[in-house]
Amino acid sequence: MRGPIVKANTTNHTGTIVSPEIPLTGFVRAKQIHQFFGIGLSTWWLWVKEGKAPPGIRLGSRTTVWRAEDVRALLDELSREA
């Protein structure tokens, strides 16, 4: 069963509006996450390195994921600070 989804509209490189999704549970990749914070992919990785974002879970040599719950918690935390 799939739970409710949080959406944030963004524009891709061609100017088309897209709606990435963060599920309530499960795993998400950096390419899905960074758009919700309004930052670039390299900034997301910098946040992880600096400890501002939660550490990822390595699934392979080139695959890292984050728990959706951790990403949502960070979004909530940053929205309260704003």
TrEMBL record:
Pfam name, any one: Phage_AlpA
InterPro entries referenced in this protein's UniProt entry, alphabetically: AlpA, DNA-bd_dom_put_sf
Name under which the protein is recorded: AlpA family phage regulatory protein
Natural source organism: Seongchinamella unica
